[in-house]
Amino acid sequence: MRQLVPCPSSPNCVSTQAHDESHAIAPFRFRKSRVEAKEALKEVIHFLPRTKLVEENESYLHYEFTSLLLRFVDDVEFLFDDETKTVHFRSASRTGYGDLGVNRKRMEQVRALVERKL
């Protein structure tokens, strides 16, 4: 299975595959098929502002989220694991050091929006 790039030491990244508390976040679980779960996630993200899908394959999605004021770009990747019915993800700022918790808040917002649809 493909792995997500590890988070850097800076606090502007969260990942379900991180092992340290400052970067770790729980993955999403899905009950439907991978295809249905991926479509449900895409539908939710489609309605979030300033998002752009930049890469997709059967078990992977990569989005760019752009901040409103300063136009900072965050990379958000999703990896669907059929065996464990898990969506792993990584959300990281491209530039800067801190993010005031933006990446973690965003992923918890996505979790709240998509949880019942997976």
Instruction: Give the overall form.
Output: globular
Residue share in β-strands: 25-35%
Superfamily at the CATH H level?
Answer: Kinase associated domain 1, KA1
Quote the distance from N terminus to C terminus: 21 Å
What is the H-and-E element order?
EEHEEEEH
The computed structural class is alpha+beta
The overall pLDDT, averaged over residues, is 95
Number of helices: 2
Remind me, CATH topology? TATA-Binding Protein
Structure description:
With 118 residues, the chain is α+β, with helices and mostly antiparallel strands. It has two helices and six strands; from the N terminus they run E-E-H-E-E-E-E-H. Strands 1, 2, 3, 4, 5 and 6 form a six-stranded antiparallel sheet that branches. The longest helix has 13 residues, at 34-46. It is globular, with a radius of gyration of 13 Å. The chain starts with 12 loop residues before the first strand and ends with a helix. The relative contact order is 0.25.
How are the SSEs placed, and which strands pair?
Layout: E1 13-15, E2 28-29, H1 34-46, E3 51-57, E4 60-66, E5 73-81, E6 86-93, H2 102-114
Antiparallel strand pairs: 1-6, 2-6, 3-4, 4-5, 5-6
Q: How is this structure best summarized?
A:
By secondary structure, this protein is α+β, with helices and mostly antiparallel strands. The protein has helices at 34-46, 102-114, and strands spanning 13-15, 28-29, 51-57, 60-66, 73-81, 86-93.
